[in-house]
Design a protein that fits this description.
Elements: E1 8-10, H1 15-24, E2 29-31, H2 37-42, E3 50-53, H3 58-61, E4 64-69, E5 72-78, H4 83-88, H5 90-95, H6 97-104, H7 109-114, H8 117-121, H9 134-140, H10 168-174, E6 178-183, E7 186-191, H11 192-195, E8 211-218, H12 219-222, E9 225-231, E10 242-250, E11 256-264, E12 271-272, H13 286-299, H14 310-330
Parallel strand pairs: 1-3, 2-3
Antiparallel strand pairs: 4-5, 5-8, 6-7, 6-8, 9-10, 10-11, 11-12
Helix pairs in contact: 13-14
Length: 331
């Protein structure tokens, strides 16, 4: 039986107090829903003596609202919105159907009621060589992500390639979302495209003393045709083998006027597929869907960082992209 280490639990009553705690306790960890951090603590993946529980901030950080700001109208999502809440919220269902779809496919119903948007966006990367018990990892000699000096996925690798597994990130990236971060140095807004790093050990720009408090989706982006797809070994609960999201605008004549495709669960960060500008002005049809699948396959390189064959993931990717794009076009 795996048990939790001895911890001191802190319960801040405001975002300001939470940030002050993070700044005063350098090795502290944030506890929102606990669906990811608790297993990782039991596995000895994290070393900390302090947990900062955010449940007392629910009145401050649990909301879905439309907002007309300096940069235009947007839908703002508080970081403590639960995954279950977002899967059912009327505004999310109407304006961000792909996000609601992604939330419905995360874990199981009990975990969706506990897990939060902020926790999912900041979800730690996963790998078959790290998400194991301490005994298992010690027998292997550990790895780059924790306690070791070698990567077991990429021979002689100098960078951790543990995979991103958050399902909300591809949708929000495809929709051009940004996140608001609060820390002791003040507040900053970061486009989600700049939030993730190509580093499996620490794959976000979030500093240890900072807190992600909100995600915002531009309202014009929310009106795009959009769709999400998740491939997993079992039909429920499992982490993604591949997840992807597409968002596109189509003119009354049926031509593409804007297009974004994001693929994740293959590397340390979700990947926006590049060089799609030449497809703007093309018909939104099967040919477009197949071309997007080919380009995604060319740019994405699955690894053996999760327990699903990388060759299979590479071959199935264009099929999944085609289906998802066609579903978005038909929406």
């Amino acid at each position: 039986m795996l048990t939790l280490p001895r911890l001191q639990l802190h319960r801040p009553g405001s975002v300001r107090e939470a940030v002050e705690l993070l700044a005063s306790k350098p090795n502290a960890r944030v506890l929102a829903g606990g669906t990811d951090i608790v297993p990782n603590l039991k596995h000895g993946i994290y070393e900390t003596e302090h947990l900062i529980a955010l449940r007392g901030l629910s009145s401050e950080l649990r909301y879905v609202r439309r907002d007309g700001g300096r940069d235009g109208d947007s839908i703002r999502l508080g970081a403590l919105c639960t995954i279950d809440q977002l899967s059912k919220d009327p505004d999310v269902l109407q304006s961000l159907p792909a996000l609601a779809d992604a939330c419905r496919q995360i874990a199981g119903p009990q975990l969706r009621k506990m897990g939060t948007l902020g926790g999912n966006l900041c979800l730690d990367t996963r790998c078959v060589y790290i998400n194991q018990s301490y005994f298992w990892r010690s027998a292997l000699g550990f790895c780059l992500k924790k306690d070791g000096t070698a990567c077991h996925v990429v021979a002689q690798g100098l960078r951790c390639v543990a995979a991103a597994s958050n399902d909300t990130a591809p949708v929000l990236l495809a929709l051009g979302a940004s996140v608001r971060i609060v820390g002791p140095r003040g507040e900053r807004v970061v486009p989600l495209a700049d939030f993730y790093l190509h580093d499996g050990i620490h794959n976000t720009v979030l500093e240890p003393d900072e807190l992600l408090v909100e995600a915002a989706v531009p309202l014009p982006a929310a009106r795009l045709k959009q769709a999400f797809f998740k491939l997993r070994t079992r039909a429920a609960i499992d982490y993604s083998a591949i997840n992807l999201a597409v968002a596109l605008a189509v003119s009354p004549a049926g031509l593409v006027t804007a297009l974004r495709l994001c693929v994740s669960a293959l590397a340390a960060r979700p990947a926006l597929i590049n060089r799609l500008q030449d497809l703007v002005g093309q018909p939104a049809d099967l040919h477009l869907a197949e071309e997007l699948g080919r380009r995604a396959q060319k740019q994405c390189k699955p690894l053996t960082n999760i327990g699903v064959d990388p060759a299979y993931r590479r071959e199935i990717l264009p099929v999944l992209v085609r289906r998802t794009v066609l579903r978005a076009i038909a929406s």
